[in-house]
Write a structure and sequence with these properties.
The protein is an all-beta fold and about 110 residues long. The chain is about 0% helix and about 45% strand.
Length: about 110
């Protein structure tokens, strides 16, 4: 869970060093905070790359990687930066299996 976004410029660089085999690798915000930006997902078993976007006022409040199609495999690298009150900037590359599915979720934090 990230601290409340205030516009401080605080940056976290997240690297997956162990592929999860159960549960999720998750990054969530608090309160009314949300992510703005996007992630590129690269599949390991298919010639595929996808992009997933967290649009402003889109309500994306969690990144949930399941270790397969939603990413979270070894080498996944995500950067989040506190860019404004209630707003975390988001960028990075997610490694997934096969065709990618979105790892960005809205309505997780209540």
């Amino acid at each position: 869970t990230l601290p409340a976004a205030t516009g401080s410029g605080c940056t976290f660089r997240l690297l997956v060093t162990l592929t999860n085999t159960s549960n999720d690798h998750s990054v969530v915000v608090v309160g009314n905070d949300e992510f703005v930006g996007g992630l590129i997902s690269i599949g390991t078993t298919a010639d595929q790359a996808d992009a997933f976007t967290a649009a402003p006022a889109g309500g994306v409040d969690a990144i949930q990687m399941n270790g397969t199609t939603e990413g979270g495999l070894l080498g996944t690298y995500i950067i989040v930066q506190d860019i404004a009150a209630d707003t975390w900037g988001l960028s990075g590359t997610v490694i997934s299996t096969d065709a990618s599915a979105t790892m960005l979720a809205a309505g997780v934090v209540s």
